[in-house]
Amino acid sequence: MKRYELVKENLGYCPGNQGRKTAIEEVEVADLDEYIKNLHSEKSYKYEKEEMPGGVVIYHLDVAGVVERYTFTEIPD
């Protein structure tokens, strides 16, 4: 498994929402797609995956109208 710094952002229902929530944690993950699916297995959602240079992977989710963003940055051993 790889270790990642994960930044979770709940961007709220509309642009400019002041109620934005952000959390940062370290996670060990074998498969990022499966990790996201397991987080939201009980909900209907759509997502886009963006792979950035340097190994950063960003998931943009729409979960019942709420926008969430998960940014994974690999932590080298």
Question: How would you explain this protein's 3D organization?
Answer:
There is one protein chain. The chain is mainly β and 77 residues long. The protein has one domain (2-74): Rossmann fold, CATH 3.40.50. It is 10% helix and 56% strand. A five-stranded antiparallel sheet has the order 2-1-5-4-3. The chain is globular, with a radius of gyration of 13 Å. The termini are close together.
Number of strands: 5
Order of helices and strands: EEHEEE
**Any idea of the CATH topology?**
Rossmann fold
- The structural domain count equals 1
**Order of neighbouring strands in the sheet with most strands:** 2-1-5-4-3
Low-pLDDT windows of residues: none
Strand percentage lies at over 45%
Secondary structure topology:
Layout: E1 2-12, E2 21-29, H1 32-39, E3 45-51, E4 57-63, E5 66-74
Antiparallel strand pairs: 1-2, 1-5, 3-4, 4-5
Task: Give a quick precis of the structure.
By secondary structure, the chain is mainly β. Helices cover 10% and strands 56% of the residues.
List keywords for this structure.
56% strand; five-stranded antiparallel beta sheet; Rossmann fold; 5 strands
